[in-house]
Amino acid sequence: MYSKTEHILVVDDEWESPIVGAVLRTLEQEGWKTSIIKPEFSTDSGNDFETETLYAIETIHPSGILLDVRLGEYREDQFKGLEILHKIVERYPHIPVLMFTQYTQGPERDTAVRSSLQLESPVDFIDKLASPQEVVLRLRRLIGRPPSHIIMGEKLILDVDSSLVQVKQGDSLDTVNDIQGMKFEILRELASTWYKSPGQLVPFSKLERYSDGEEARASLRVRIREIKISLGNALGVKFGAGDFIINVRDQGYRLVPPKTFENL
Amino acid sequence: MIQLIHIAAIIFGAVVCLVGVILGLSAPILGGRVSDNLWAVEPVSYVAAVIIISGLTIITVSYTILGILHRKINPFDSGDELISNWAALTQRYFELFQHDLGRPLRRILGKEREVRSTIDLSNRELYADVLELLDEIEGQAPNFRLMMSNVQVLIQMETPVGDLALEPIEPLEIVRRIVDRYTFAATDGNKEITWWSDPDEFGIVYCDASAIEHIITNVVDNAVRFADKRIEIKLIREGSSFSIKVWDDGYGIPKEYRSHIFDRGWTPELAKREERTTSGLGMFIAKTLSQRYGGDLMVQSSVGNEVGHYTEFTLTLPIKELSG
Question: How many contacts, defined by CB atoms under 8 Å, are there between A and B?
Answer without folding.
Answer: 96
